[in-house]
Automatic annotation (TrEMBL):
Record-level GO BP terms: L-methylmalonyl-CoA metabolic process
InterPro entries: Glyas_Bleomycin-R_OHBP_Dase, MMCE/EMCE_epimerase, VOC_core
Key word Metal-binding present: yes
Record's keyword terms, sorted: Metal-binding
PROSITE patterns: VOC
UniProt cross-references to SUPFAM superfamilies, sorted A to Z: Glyoxalase/Bleomycin resistance protein/Dihydroxybiphenyl dioxygenase
Protein name: VOC family protein
Domain of life where this protein originates: Bacteria
Molecular functions per Gene Ontology: metal ion binding; methylmalonyl-CoA epimerase activity
Length: 179
């Protein structure tokens, strides 16, 4: 457990082929089911202080308490994911800490000297921010707000993984507007 942020709740992997990655994780590692969104609805996205419209495909599943995120970049918008790929890497890109008090935790991290690089929102109360902390591959830190519909979706994904029998390994993302 991090003495600054609590437990790591998500491991984020940047992949070149998300369908192949979901297949590997479910068939070889037994992790699933995967909740897949071919185009995540990211609002208010910024990278290095500039606004962009990213197109990322994302799949989420849990292995016990930890959520695994697979990310495939679908356009050339500046992002930490694109930077990771351009550096010749794939695999673990970030670890995420979840919060229900985003503003307070963000202020605490900024006061400790953390430098924001990428941010946005997925659903109401679904803000996220990535800090410039890649001192070696896989060490980018994300602070992710898990309130509202995004928090409910994460609960649903974790519940689906419990006693998963391998059936229906890929499922659509729930509609955040209905959660």
């Amino acid at each position: 457990m991090s003495r600054f942020l609590g437990e790591i709740r998500q491991l984020g992997y940047v992949v070149n082929d998300i369908e192949a990655a979901m297949k590997y994780w479910s068939e070889t590692l037994g992790v699933g089911p995967w909740f897949y969104n071919p185009k995540v609805p990211i609002e208010n996205y910024q990278y290095a202080g500039e606004s962009y419209q990213p197109h990322n495909s994302v799949a989420l599943a849990n292995s016990g308490f930890v959520q695994v995120e697979l990310i495939q970049v679908r356009n050339d918008v500046p992002s930490m994911y694109r930077d990771f790929l351009r550096a010749g890497r794939t695999g673990l890109q970030h670890v995420a800490y979840w919060t229900t008090d985003y503003d307070a935790d963000l202020q605490r991290l900024l006061a400790q000297g953390f430098k924001p690089l990428m941010s946005g929102e997925v659903g109401k109360n679904g803000r996220f921010i990535y800090f410039d902390t890649e001192y070696h591959p896989g060490t980018v830190i994300e602070l992710s707000e898990v309130m509202g519909s995004k928090g409910k979706m994460f609960d649903l994904i974790r519940a689906a993984s419990q006693d998963w029998d391998g059936q229906n390994p890929v499922r659509p993302f729930p509609d955040l507007n209905t959660l």
